[in-house]
Amino acid sequence: MRIFIDTVDSREIELDNITELCITQTAGVSCDSIWVRFKGICTVGEIVSVKAYDGRNLIFNGYCDNQRIYENEKGFETYFYARSTASVLVDNEAEPFTYNKPTAKQLWFIYAKPYGFTCNLPTITTDEKYEIAKGTSCFGAIGRFVNLKTSKSIYVTPDNSIELLEASKDVKSLNDYNILSSVFVINRSEPLTKICFKRRNSDIGYKLTTKADVSLGFNERKEYLNLSSLPQWQRETAVLQRLKASYADYNVLEVVVAGRVTDSLYQRFSYHSKSGDFDDYILNEKRYVFNEKGESTRLILKKQIDIKEITYVD
């Protein structure tokens, strides 16, 4: 792996003598991140931007947020932390506005194209109004709209393209990788059994209920939602999205693999071990680490729980 930095005085430097580095990607998190420690007999100056390559492939592209320079009798050690270029869209607030029948590409044109981002999103539309509230970031203005219409997330590639995060069509086997360790986690504290809601403030009580039709032996765990502040088209999906989101971390597989894993987020995997069979888990996070112990990648994979819901009036 090759790491290049650009400094405030317009110098490009390829780093050597790197002692540690970590690159993290997480589904649903706006920015990838990287942190690096390296040594030298002199300082490199103030770091502005960072690029990381695996061979010829650009795998990280971003801006330095924090830099620390340590000095002792042996010379200098520099640490820096950087977020990917998506941070530009996260750090800039979108102008509050209510759009009538917008599209995802229209929102990209207004909130991301001026910063140099391209769009590779499919056609996503609505026949209703969409409000950009005060305090919404440019990333959030696009991402929230896409999520409301598709229940999916957007992400920004190292080449500054905005794309839709979708599960792979194929299922790979983790048994083909050099597995160093694995942990299977069951989280039973978060899944909801039902959500009681009302659509309008004038409704008396929370008479509508959506129940998760799953047979996992959960104790009753319910939540109340008032949907009156949402536009009509958002009310139809808000309850089901909240119910499904509560099951996101129910079954989690954490695996440490030797070397660097190049698979993209949302790649589907299966894994068979002495502790059990784990079929069709989706890659939600990967963290590549290089240090004195060598190279490894920590993968977090989550099982997509098929929740069938039942809605009724109490």
The quaternary state of the protein chains shown equals single chain
Distance between the termini: 59 Å
Shape: globular
| Overall mean confidence score, pLDDT | 94
Overview of the molecule:
The structure is a single chain. The protein is mainly beta and about 325 residues long. It is built from four helices and 22 strands. Strands 1, 2, 3, 4, 5, 6, 7, 13, 14, 18, 19, 20 and 21 form a 13-stranded mixed beta sheet that branches. Strands 17-15-16-22 form a four-stranded mixed beta sheet, covered by helices on one side. Strands 9-12-11 form a three-stranded mixed beta sheet, with helices on one face. Helix 2 (about 105-110) runs antiparallel to helix 3. The model has no long low-confidence stretch (mean pLDDT about 95).
List the helices and strands and how they pair.
Elements: E1 2-7, E2 12-14, E3 18-26, E4 33-40, E5 47-54, E6 57-72, E7 75-84, H1 87-91, E8 97-100, H2 104-111, E9 118-119, E10 129-132, H3 138-150, E11 153-156, E12 161-165, E13 171-173, E14 179-186, E15 194-198, E16 208-212, E17 222-226, H4 232-245, E18 251-258, E19 268-273, E20 276-291, E21 294-303, E22 309-313
Helix pairs in contact: 2-3
